Amino acid sequence: MNLQRDCKILKIYICEDAKYKGHNLYHALIEKMAEIGMAGVTVTRGIEGFGHEKRLYSTRILDISLKLPVIIEVIDTPQKIEMALPVINDMVDEGLVIVTDVIVEKYGNQLTVKK
Predict the structure, then answer these.
(1) Which of 32, 59, 74, 96 is an S-S bond match for 13, by CB 3.0 to 4.6 Å?
(2) Distances in Å between the alpha carbon of 108 and those of 1, 10, 13?
(3) Which tens digits make up the pLDDT trace of 95-109?
């Protein structure tokens, strides 16, 4: 797959203990994005953060917290991101979902064509 230069990045911020049909939401989202055929998906686990409740979660707490932030990033063409949004909105009950423009300079071992 070759990505064009002008793409979108979709970021989903959720709590790592969020569930979807009894499974980890972040894993369910990755599986769904693979089914859709997205160019790339990355899940990052935060070491500290807070959300709309302003309650701080951190790995510095002695107990292993399962409420740390998780960020799922999806990069693809604007059309594919738009296609994924209804699916994501159906799966994510609580969190933050954002979409922004990105310029892809390189994908894999191919440089993108500059317009």
Answers:
(1) 96
(2) 9, 19, 26
(3) 999 999 999 888 877
Strand 69-76 to 19-20 pairing = unpaired
CATH topology (fold) of 6-111: Alpha-Beta Plaits (3.30.70)
Task: Record the pTM.
Answer: 0.81
- pLDDT, tens digit (0-9, with 9 covering 90-100), for 27-53: 999 999 999 999 989 999 877 666 666
Contacts of 75 (CB under 8 A, 6+ apart): 3, 7, 8, 9, 10, 38, 39, 40, 102, 104
CB-based contact 85:12 (threshold 8 Å): no
